[in-house]
Amino acid sequence: MINTIIFDLGAVLIDWNPDYMYRSIFADEQQMRDFLTTVTTSDWNEEQDAGRSLQEGTEWLIAQHPHHEENIRAFYGRWIEMLGDAFEGTVEIFKELKDSGKYRIYALTNWSAETFPMAQEKFEFLGWFDGIVVSGAEKMRKPAPEFYQILLDRYNVKPEESLFIDDNYRNILAAEKMGINCIHFTSSEKLREELLEKSIL
User: Which of 1, 8, 68, 200 makes an SS bond possible with 166, Cβ 3.0 to 4.6 Å?
Assistant: First the structure.
């Protein structure tokens, strides 16, 4: 019996993409791709999601790539420009689940504690959650089991009574190992189908 829904945020409810900002810096698409894959990498960004300060992360990266200093500083200096729109199809599903009154609904997100307030200011639906666990504030991130456990303990959630929705398959695998029911998110349309199949919507 599912009584708790746990959403990931980025790429599930919220569109975030560094391309949006860096296309205004790089005229050449391949140069931008090279910069994002070799300098401001996902691994580097995830260290800020895990609690490293934006300043420390920025200065560390500049020390590794001093000739890219200006473009590195833009990553967090102009971060708000990377924040796209909400995925309205998923927001509508969230609203239906919330309005049903059947579920407690939480968010478990890998996100810097310093940039998350910008998202809260932009997206009203972030105020609909019964609770949000932000990796940067906890100084740990998915897929660490301890991070999931924070949410389970804080809100008295039983794994077998919860459903976790995330676009990153490694995060799904980690949750499943803890006994949490999961849906691997690929689109809002597919999510709706799977929730209907499970008689959750």
Answer: 8
Looking only at Cα atoms, what is the longest distance across the chain? 55
pLDDT digits (tens, 9 = 90+) for 132-142: 999 999 999 99
Angle between the N-to-C axes of helices 42-49 and 54-64, in degrees from 0 to 180, rounded to the nearest 10? 150
Q: How far is CA 153 from CA 148, 156, 159, in A?
A: 9, 5, 10
Residue at which a domain ends, from 25, 58, 83: 83
Asked whether 119 and 83 are in contact (CB, 8 A), the reply is yes
Please check whether residues 70 and 128 belong to one and the same domain: no
Q: Answer yes or no: pTM beyond 0.90.
A: yes
Cα angle: 132, vertex 88, 193; to 5 degrees: 90
How far the first Cα of the chain sits from its last, in Å, is 13
Q: Which amino acid is at 176?
A: E
- Look up the domain containing 32 and give its range: 17-83
What CATH number has the domain bearing residue 120?
Answer: 3.40.50.1000
Co-location of 70 and 100 in the same domain: no
Torsion over CA: 140, 144, 148, 149 (sign): negative
Residues 105 and 63 in one domain: no
